[in-house]
Protein: Sigma factor regulatory protein, FecR/PupR family
Organism: Phocaeicola coprocola DSM 17136
Amino acid sequence: MKQDSEDKLAHVLEALENPSSFTQEELKSLFSDKECLRYARTILYAKESLARQQIPQPDIDKEWRTFERHHKKTSIIPIIIGLAIASCIALFFIFSLSKEVEGGLRVFEATQTVQIVKEETVNGMTTVYVPRGMQKRLELPDGTCVTLNAESQLTYETSQFGQNERKVILQGEALFDVAKDSLRPFIVQSGKLSTKALGTVFNVKDYSTEEMKITLLSGSLKITSQQKTDSVFIHPGEQAILTNQQELRTVKIPQTEDITSWAEGNFYFDNQTLVEILCELGRWYNVSVIFKSKDCMNTRLHFKAFRNESLASVVELLNYVSKNPVVLEDRTIIVGK
């Protein structure tokens, strides 16, 4: 028994230190074992604690004034857990939008636009826009509550909304808590998908840097692809994904609350690529992201942090859990050697 536990610990240490030496199936098998998972968490918590001890104490008054000016929220200390897992999956969306620059590949670009929430009504259509680094909660005329993520836009008919159907157009990401109405379906048009609900809670994520995902927390949804006219029904704990080939597929999501943790002010990435994580950071902090090498873009991490922490602190902590060096220079995150 003791030897068996020691062998498991040795395998966990090797997987955390050299994930590329394991196949995806081997990693899944290893961490499906409860004892191995417990070992991994203990090691990562210890590593994260050691990282914090080495980070200089911030100027609390200065950080508070800066944070209060930009976010108007109560500051809290971040939590971050990193688990690197090998991956060789090509990121179609990232590569299609990336641009070769001196010294590497720019996958996300900062904008000089003034970052303010905008709400305007033109020709009977109301549009709410939330810029980078912010999120906003609003209530629609029918009582439906919507939380818009950074760099997102919601449009709906002002006077006609709810007369026959309740339809909104979304760009970006939003969490919907739909008011129940069996006679008037609630429809979210986003990109190439249409989502239909009567009364339910779900999250729609549609950014150009990744696949479109719709996650259901409660109720039921019918999701229709405009391009291929196929539909899927999903139930609580399921997620619909529009693939690069414009096909709909569904997957199980054990912890749906992790998907919507952004609405509570958190970053949460479960086995996502480094490039996806850094694009999300770029969107929130409005900074550019450059990779010196494509090789490290597909490295996968399990990463959690609070959004009201400074970018410098998040980058500092990332360097303790990622083998690829991450450097913050002015308004640019540079990754790789």
Remarks:
- DSSP finds eight helices and 21 strands in the chain.
- Residues 2-54 form one domain.
- Helices lie at 2-17, 24-31, 34-54, 60-71, 92-97, 256-259, 274-285, 311-321.
- Residues 51-97 have pLDDT under 50 and may be disordered.
